[in-house]
Design a protein that fits this description.
The protein is of the alpha+beta class. The chain folds into two domains: 2-148, Aminopeptidase, CATH 3.40.630.30; 167-367, Cysteine proteinases (Cathepsin B, Chain A, Alpha-Beta Complex), CATH 3.90.70.10. The chain is built from eleven helices and 15 strands. A hairpin with a 5-residue loop joins β3 and β4. The longest helix has 19 residues, at 243-261.
Length: 375
């Protein structure tokens, strides 16, 4: 029988962990924490009155992505297809939580696990260097749990933001790289884009980047860009208390706008609907959307993500922020599926419900005009 694990299974889970793994074992404390978390589910399969194996799935708030965090069958219980049954149960549990994608990491030398996952339809999509305690790499696998949705996605390279305030440059870099594979992504470019696009004072700390500065930076690098903003006022101005900082934000935005108006950059007033973004995506554009991170991270700050695909029910995004404090890895931040209704709720920021999006495209000949120097 397969059932949800309880705290009464702690001893058995720790014993299986010690028998199955030489390194990177989950501790008793970790098991206790995960068994009592609302966004984690551990299933066990019973064997002879005890526990013969377990599978642990983590769910990420605000997205429809599940992660098979840990999976093990007691060596003494192998040969009963427990691994297959547990994996089936974990996938069904993920579907029951409205997850359409399940991801995992596995050691390259764990041949039995790799065979199991590949037989179940998991495909390898990447490698995580220096992942385990002994510095071994991890192979990344994923499975689409609802293949009938047939997501329309493009291969957008992933770039992780290296500073708390560079989500905008990181998102822009990913979109530009998708359109121009020759582009080299590195920290120098990340910081250069930030310097060109920052609103200077967005919060009490370092400034973030608004849509106008990012659009100008993209244009100057040879990309066409379309801007959607629903608010004619200065964005993020309510994020600071200092009157002097508010003035700076307004002046910087006005300067960006003056430069953009001298270029053939469409400035759309109003919200970019999902239908419009999807149409632009199908036509070859790469959308970058401003969201409120509250629905994912429970912190209220503006955050940029890159749209990498659509299907009937979901928007797929790359999130440049990898929240390691919450146990996330790059695997959790690539092609994150988000229900369209949830994405619409999170694609706004602040009390005024400010909305912003960019669509990048390859430059057309008719739009080739001299670039404006960055201020």
């Amino acid at each position: 029988m397969i059932r949800p694990a309880t705290l009464d299974d702690l001893d058995a889970l720790v014993a299986i962990e010690e028998r199955c793994f030489d390194t990177d074992r989950l501790s008793r404390r970790s098991f206790r924490h995960l068994l009592t978390r609302g966004r984690a589910l551990t299933l066990v399969i019973e064997h002879g009155g005890g526990v013969g194996g377990y599978g642990m799935v983590l769910f990420h708030e605000g997205t429809s992505l599940g992660r098979l965090y840990s999976f093990a069958v007691d060596p003494a219980c192998r040969g009963h297809r427990y691994g297959q049954r547990l994996l089936d149960a974990c996938e069904q549990a993920a579907l029951d939580r409205d997850c359409v994608t399940l991801r995992l990491e596995v050691r390259p030398d764990n041949a039995a696990a790799i065979r199991l996952y590949e037989r179940h339809g998991y495909r390898r999509f990447g490698v995580h260097e220096d992942y385990y305690e002994d510095h071994a790499e991890a192979l990344r696998y994923e499975k689409e749990l609802a293949p009938h949705l047939k997501p329309d996605r493009v291969p957008v390279p992933f770039y992780r933001q290296t500073l708390d305030f560079t989500c905008g440059p990181a998102a822009l870099m990913m979109a530009m790289k998708a359109l121009d594979p020759r582009l080299q992504l590195n920290r120098k470019l990340e910081l250069r884009l930030w310097r060109e696009s920052t609103t200077v004072f967005m919060t009490s700390g370092h400034g973030g980047c608004g849509p106008y500065g990012l659009a100008l930076a993209a244009w100057q690098r040879g990309f066409d860009v379309e801007v959607f903003v629903n608010d004619e006022g200065a964005l993020f101005v309510d994020s600071v208390r200092s009157p002097d900082k508010k003035v700076v934000i307004r002046l910087v935005q006005e300067d960006f706008l003056d430069q953009l108006r001298a270029l053939p950059v469409p400035l759309r007033r109003g919200r970019a609907s999902l239908d419009r973004l999807q149409a632009a995506f199908v036509a070859g554009g790469i959308p970058i959307v401003l969201i409120s991170s509250y629905r994912i991270y429970r912190e209220k700050f503006p955050h940029w993500v890159v749209v990498t695909g659509f299907d009937e029910r979901y928007v797929y995004v790359h999130d440049p922020f990898v929240d390691e404090d919450a146990g996330k890895t790059r695997t959790d931040c690539i092609n994150m599926p988000i229900l369209k209704k949830d994405f619409l709720r999170m694609a706004r920021y602040g009390k005024a419900g400010q909305r912003a999006a960019l669509v990048l495209r390859n430059r057309t000949e008719v739009a080739r005009l001299p670039a404006v120097a960055a201020s």
